[in-house]
Model the fold of this input.
Amino acid sequence: MSPTKGVLLVGVGLLVLTTLSFLLSRAHLGRWGLEVALGIAAVKAGLLAFFYMHLAERPGGPRLVFATAFIFVVILVGLVLLEAAARARPSMPPGPFPPLLLPGLHDARQVAPPRAGASERGP
Done:
């Protein structure tokens, strides 16, 4: 395959992956959205490094450096995601008092919303 053809194929591949990334950003994938986006970004970064930075033409050293950096990024992102998933949800403990009227409001229908877990006592 000629170098020009390879560059064009990689360029078309990057355009396809960018379009796929954009279209998937419009679709709500729920929990898998982040994983899919990071996977597409990793594939695009690999294509850029191996073809446009000519790592595919070089033996050993540059490939090892790229692979090591990629592994460290994967480890760090994985640790950040694990820590974020293990966080406790912030909560406001229920208080012993009923919700107060909002300042300046005198109508009983316009009471501040109760805190999470608070008993349903009136003012």
